[in-house]
């Protein structure tokens, strides 16, 4: 007999008080610009104030990680969203760029401890890219969830440390 699948709890997404950076590639702007609009709208709906959403632009997806890291080093961000679109062309350049972008963004997140969301579409063609524009909304939700989860973890760690210090007094 097959056991029923238990779903994890849905997160409570509350972006009030969070500062979110968005780094957007201008290359394939018809896709990335639409994703940016979806991300910004979703962040507003989730409670992030307009003045707490900071947008920077790059020439293409390859440069996203560099600017994401610079943003994190310049101010306090609870999460960064990287938006780009890489489409397959006549050569395999898209594979090289896609791999480098994903690894670069992951390294930024791991080295800084700031959630850095990979919102880069890798598509075979224009139609596939357009079908994935809603990824902007998903990235906003992921950024809020990760920021809130990290805040909870850090708060619990601080409370545990305080309890440990007071116990020794």
Task: Describe the protein's architecture and organization.
The protein is α/β, with parallel strands linked by helices. 51% of the residues lie in helices and 17% in strands. Helix 3 (93-112) links the parallel strand 3 (79-87) and strand 4 (116-123). Helix 2 packs parallel to helix 3 (93-112). The longest helix is centred in the last third of the chain and has 33 residues, at 135-167. The model has no long low-confidence stretch (mean pLDDT 92).
The domain tally reads 1
Quaternary state reads single chain
Strand content: 15-25%
User: Which term fits the overall shape?
Assistant: globular
Note the gap between the termini.
56 Å
CATH superfamily: Lumazine/riboflavin synthase
Uncertain regions: pLDDT < 50 for 5+ in a row? none
Strand line-up of the largest beta sheet: 2-1-3-4
List the total number of helices: 5
Describe the main β-sheet briefly. 4 strands, parallel
**E-strand count:** 4
CATH class: Alpha Beta
- The value of Rg in angstroms is 18 Å
**What's the rounded overall pLDDT mean?**
92
Layout: helices, strands, pairs:
Elements: E1 20-25, H1 29-45, E2 53-58, H2 64-74, E3 79-87, H3 93-112, E4 116-123, H4 126-131, H5 135-167
Parallel strand pairs: 1-2, 1-3, 3-4
In short:
This protein has 169 residues and is an alpha/beta fold. It has helices at 29-45, 64-74, 93-112, 126-131, 135-167; strands spanning 20-25, 53-58, 79-87, 116-123.
Distinctive features:
169 residues; alpha/beta; Rossmann fold; 4-stranded parallel sheet; 5 helices; 51% helix; globular
């Amino acid at each position: 007999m097959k056991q029923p699948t238990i779903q994890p709890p849905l997160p409570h997404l509350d972006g009030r008080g969070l500062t979110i950076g968005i780094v957007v590639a201008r290359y394939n702007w018809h896709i990335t610009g639409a994703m940016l609009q979806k991300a910004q709208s979703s962040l507003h709906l989730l409670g992030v104030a307009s003045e707490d959403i900071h947008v920077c632009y790059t020439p293409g997806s390859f440069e996203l990680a560099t600017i994401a890291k610079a943003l994190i080093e310049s101010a306090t961000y609870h999460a960064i969203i990287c938006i780009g679109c890489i489409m397959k062309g006549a050569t395999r350049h898209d594979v090289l760029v896609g791999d480098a972008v994903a690894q670069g963004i992951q390294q930024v997140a791991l080295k800084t401890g700031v959630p850095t969301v990979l919102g880069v579409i890798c598509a075979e063609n224009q139609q596939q890219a357009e079908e994935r524009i809603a990824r902007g909304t998903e990235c906003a939700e992921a950024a809020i969830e990760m920021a809130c989860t990290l805040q909870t973890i850090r708060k619990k760690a601080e409370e545990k440390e305080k309890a440990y210090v007071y116990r020794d007094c």
